[in-house]
Design brief:
Elements: H1 2-18, H2 45-50, E1 59-68, E2 77-78, E3 90-92, H3 94-101, E4 109-121, E5 130-145, E6 158-159, E7 162-163, E8 173-174, H4 178-183, E9 192-200, E10 205-206, E11 211-216, E12 219-224, H5 225-231, E13 238-250, E14 253-262
Parallel strand pairs: 3-5, 8-9, 12-14
Antiparallel strand pairs: 1-2, 1-4, 4-5, 6-7, 9-13, 10-11, 11-12, 13-14
Length: 265
């Protein structure tokens, strides 16, 4: 018990010295703390990258949508476009580079990511070019295929100016053609996936308190009631929905449980 107390005291002292709030973790990158310092400065990405000299040397949090995570590139690519800047490009710091490259991002997928960023003059004091680096990142959501338009992207909820969501791991693999899943489900068992599915309202059946069930060939698809029931009055007779879900196999066959779905109602 004494050892536990000593450890807790040490952690509290470390938090005070680091300037981070008590109760937060000090890890960074994939698999680290999902919390953010209580006194963190949050700036809109468009404001930050457009007026970068005024934030020189300051550590700020910002988020970008449609980030294309990389396993090879030492820079951040995004179709958000708010990170477009004449001053330079966002890239991982040396201490976070390994975590960034090994985060498990899927090819052709995009993500909403929160970054902790600091910019330093890289033009001998002329304030023309900057080294813009992040030393921490939190993956907030899987936004699906990078080439989806904004109207079909997953909805975003903000809290204190930053996304409140946290993405599940491992990230979902992109499956462009859902028909491949329904025809060869054994290939996808145990995998999380991002794809799209067309369903008909007349096919909805109650599975339990949380899910509707529809059949797709030999595949049973569980749709979360909480999302669909709110939109039931305006849902067309059929609709196509983007989703993230996981396929499991049992003695009853194959079941796809959808975790998240979004659609243009």
């Amino acid at each position: 018990m004494k050892k536990l107390v000593v450890v807790m005291v040490a952690l509290l002292l470390l938090a005070a010295c680091s300037g981070e709030g008590v109760g937060l973790s000090w890890g960074f990158g994939a698999g680290a703390s999902e919390s953010i310092e209580r006194d963190a400065k949050v700036v809109d990405a468009a404001e930050y990258f457009k007026n970068l000299p005024q934030y020189e040397g300051q550590t700020v949090y910002l988020y970008l949508r449609k980030v294309m995570g990389s396993q090879v590139e030492e820079s951040v690519r995004s179709m958000d476009h708010r990170d477009t800047s004449e001053y330079g490009f966002l890239k991982p710091s040396k201490k976070i580079l390994a975590s960034w490259l090994s985060a498990g991002f899927e090819d052709e997928a995009s993500y909403t990511v929160t970054f902790r960023v600091t910019a330093r003059d890289d033009s001998a004091g002329k304030k023309l070019f900057y080294a813009i680096e992040f030393d921490r990142f939190i993956v907030n959501s899987e936004d699906g295929c990078m080439f989806l338009d904004d109207e079909t992207a997953a909805p975003l909820e903000l809290k204190n100016g930053l996304p409140s969501g946290r993405a599940k791991r491992p990230f979902a693999a992109i499956v462009p053609n859902f028909e491949a899943v329904s025809l060869y489900p054994e290939k996808y068992v145990g995998k999380r996936m991002f794809s799209s599915i067309r369903v008909f309202k007349k096919d909805f059946r109650t599975f339990n308190d949380k899910y509707w069930i529809v059949k797709e060939g030999d595949l049973k698809v569980l749709l979360p009631k909480a999302v669909i029931e709110r939109k039931m009055p305006v849902i067309n007779d059929f609709f196509t929905s983007q989703f993230v879900g996981k396929l499991e196999s049992s003695s009853d066959g194959f079941t796809l449980t959808i975790e998240d779905l979004w659609v243009r109602w």
